[in-house]
Amino acid sequence: QVQPVESGGGLVQAGGSLRLSCACSGSIFSIRTMGWYRQAPGKQRELVAAITTGGSTNYADSVKGRFTVSRDNAKKTLYLQMNSLKPEDTAVYYCNAERGPVYYWGQGTQVTVSS
User: Fold this and answer.
1) DSSP states of the chain as a string?
2) Per-residue pLDDT tens for 34-75?
3) What are the angstrom distances between the C-alpha of 70 and each of 1, 35, 115?
4) pLDDT band at 26, cuts 50/70/90?
5) What is the pLDDT of residues 65-106, one digit of tens each?
6) Strands 10-13 and 109-114
7) What local confidence, expressed as pLDDT, does residue 28 receive?
8) How far apart (Å, rounded) are the C-alpha atoms in residues 72 and 66?
């Protein structure tokens, strides 16, 4: 069992930066892909960025060049550095860890970007 716990959300002005962290309890053995998703009010949850065990990354077009995903396997922690934030980045951000057919989700952290 893996339990991701997000932190680092908050209120920031447009153009500012935030760094989200996702610490995982339990064993992350055989966890392949870890990622960040977000869900804005009235919208579906969408992939923001993901990273594999080997370090390959994938980003939503809307965040390319502004967000950077990274992971520290020794610390069992996933990060999301968010720069040049825009009001449309406002959402609840969720951490996800994939182990085969099983997906583990965190409880989410709110990010609010004011204009």
Assistant:
1) --EEEEE--EEEETT--EEEEEEEES--TT---EEEEEE-TTS--EEEEEE-TT--EEE-GGGTTTEEEEEETTTTEEEEEE-S--GGG-EEEEEEEEETTEEEE---EEEEEE-
2) 999 999 999 999 999 999 988 999 999 999 999 999 999 889
3) 22, 9, 27
4) confident
5) 999 999 998 899 999 999 999 999 999 999 999 988 999 999
6) parallel
7) 78
8) 20
Tokens standing for residue 86: 């825009």
Q: Which two tokens stand for residue 7?
A: 């932190």
Name the phi and psi angles at 110, rounded to 5. -80, 130
Nearest to 115 by CA among 85, 90, 87: 87
**What is the per-residue pLDDT for 39?**
98
The answer to whether residues 2 and 102 touch, using CB atoms and an 8 Å cutoff, is no
Compute how many other C-beta atoms are within 10 angstroms of the C-beta atom of residue 84. Answer: 13
Token pair belonging to 110: 């709110």
Fill in the DSSP letter of residue 61.
G
- Tokens representing 94 are 């969720």
Would you state the structure tokens that stand for residue 89, as one six-digit string?
């980045």
